[in-house]
Amino acid sequence: MGSFADFYRRSIEDRDGFWAEQAALIDWETPPRQICDASQPPFTRWYAGGRTNLCHNAVDRHLATRASQPALICVSTETGTERTWTFAELHAEVQRMAAAMLELGVRQGDRVLIYMPMIAEAAFAMLACARIGAIHSVVFGGFASGSLASRIEDAAPVLIVSADAGSRSGKVVPYRPLLDEAIRLSSHKPGAVLLVDRQLDAMNLIAGRDHLWRTLREKHLNSVVPCEWLDATHPSYTLYTSGTTGKPKGVQRDTGGYAVALAASMKYIFEGKPGETYFSTSDIGWVVGHSYIVYGPLIAGMATLMYEGLPVRPDAGIWWQLVEKYKVTRMFSAPTAVRVLKKHDAAWLKKYDLSSLKALYLAGEPLDEPTAQWISQGLGVPVIDNYWQTETGWPILTLANGVERAASKFGSPGVPMYGYNVKLLDENTGEELQGAGRKGVVAIEGPLPPGCMQTVWRDDARFVNTYWKSIPGRLVYNTFDWGIRDGDGYFFILGRTDDVINVAGHRLGTREIEESIASHPNVAEVAVVGVADTLKGQVAMAFAVVKDASALTDEPARLKLEGEIMKAVDAQLGAVARPARVRFVTVLPKTRSGKLLRRAIQAVCEGRDPGDLTTIEDPAALQQIRDLLAA
Ligand code: ATP
Ligand code: MG
């Protein structure tokens, strides 16, 4: 590959040449006529004129060389089941699912909403949609009927694929009643519902609407459904952002550009080899699940491990036991999951043979240094931070190969990936911030590389106005994250643009304050928000979860710990960054994807309405904060 710097430069300076080369990583029925059509900015059409299929590239393409190798491994510690499908077996299941969809009236361009737990049939359904050119819209299985209803409304699906139930921590979580309620709430009614019966919860089928997967599968046991060759720009799916900063946005992705982007990222970033096993601990309801549970590893000819269960059940060694058993080479997880493991004995990281594992990739939230150190020392493999968004589909910033990885810096996800023309801009003037050490908005100069969002589903105006017109004077993609670049070109993400606190004229990133609080040995997790203050403009408020709650027996003890934490902040950042209060809670409000809901905490602190909370994990967490403030 030569030096990464040269590789990167070429991706920007010879964009079409570079991406024409990457296009050869996948199979095309018709090669593209044009590489990048950027004639109508900010819209970009990648590989126009080309025809391909995601399912072909993920499954069929491998049959000639690895039909009998593992493709999909599903482990559920909830139901105690474990099963492997080879590429040939996956091919057969996907065709059965595709045949069932066709029978239920699904045609190319129709939407299929997938509301499923982490079971094999969820992957079959996604791949079956890709096979026949239906647009899938996967909704995280943990969402309740209200969030589901708004997504049904938006996607207007011909078919919904679901199951009787999921399971969490050994407790059955029925899906079917939530689905029925969501369909009732939605003005759009799907033509059909296809249900996987896991025999976890009783289901009464609604005649004429509901169909059992088991029955249709039997009927289509030998059905042959060829891949539809689709235009490269044909939408493959829609997916909602996590809703951390507001109402979730429906991201629309294409087909050809996405396939190429994933194939390239598997080669240059994740370095997965055919025949190896990839284990991403995410959920198919999130972008990581789309790119790096289902499509990416399979496109690379790897087996992908899908896991239903908690990281600490039956014990905190379960993931590492799976790494040993399936000889996982590449693993993908999130800082929030590592923080859960960190509450348990580090000896679990040493109990199993992890010699197959080459790297652990983490994304989704800033990776704080204590967490990064703990996991990388425990596992003895490189821990690679990568920064991206639902919108982009694959990493914007990370470290692409051996050269850069050797120089990894804690706290930095790394450097811009090929194809991403990343800039730091002044939020108010749009001026480009050159040189090192200047804080700015992380922005991407168009055209966005292949794999990134085409538009907001059915809302081009929102795509243009939200993402491209928020920085004065230029048409540039706004990530809504703050960053800083050091003299070596490494970026540090300082948090969301709306997570900056202005204390008496000093601009402080909430993340910096959180990091300094987290350096206290008894702090497990912390959220810092800026709260309006008549005197100083804003003050920082901190909410912390402690490791050892015995330090909090009474008010004097709490005040003592609060004082210690404030001293740590004073010492590290200066008194200006010292939070007005540090309050203690047992759990922080997070989205279902594990991201801190700072905007909701801030709203509660300021006595405002917390806004869209449809993606919150545990509403009781916000209540704890309300109670504390009221006390
Ligand atoms: P919404 O856009 O609906 O408010 P969201 O931004 O949380 O929700 P996602 O697309 O799931 O939705 O998350 C992307 C965001 O997560 C990034 O913009 C960034 O703020 C954060 N993020 C992801 N990876 C990293 C990372 N490695 N380091 C720091 N922040 C990260
Ligand atoms: Mg976002």
TrEMBL record:
Q: In what residue span(s) does the AMP-binding enzyme C-terminal domain sit?
A: 512-595
Source taxon at top rank: Bacteria
* Pfam families reported for this sequence: ACAS_N (PF16177), AMP-binding (PF00501), AMP-binding_C (PF13193)
| Record bears the keyword ATP-binding | yes
Query: What are the UniProt keywords, alphabetically?
Result: ATP-binding, Ligase, Nucleotide-binding
Gene Ontology MF: a single term: ATP binding
Name all Acetyl-coenzyme A synthetase N-terminal domain ranges.
5-58
Identify the residues that the record assigns to the AMP-dependent synthetase/ligase domain, covering every copy.
Answer: 61-447
User: Per the UniProt entry, what is one GO biological process?
Assistant: propionate catabolic process, 2-methylcitrate cycle
PANTHER family referenced in this protein's UniProt entry, alphabetically: ACYL-COA SYNTHETASE, ACYL-COA SYNTHETASE SHORT-CHAIN FAMILY MEMBER 3, MITOCHONDRIAL
Family, similarity comment: Belongs to the ATP-dependent AMP-binding enzyme family.
The identity of this protein, by name, is Propionate--CoA ligase
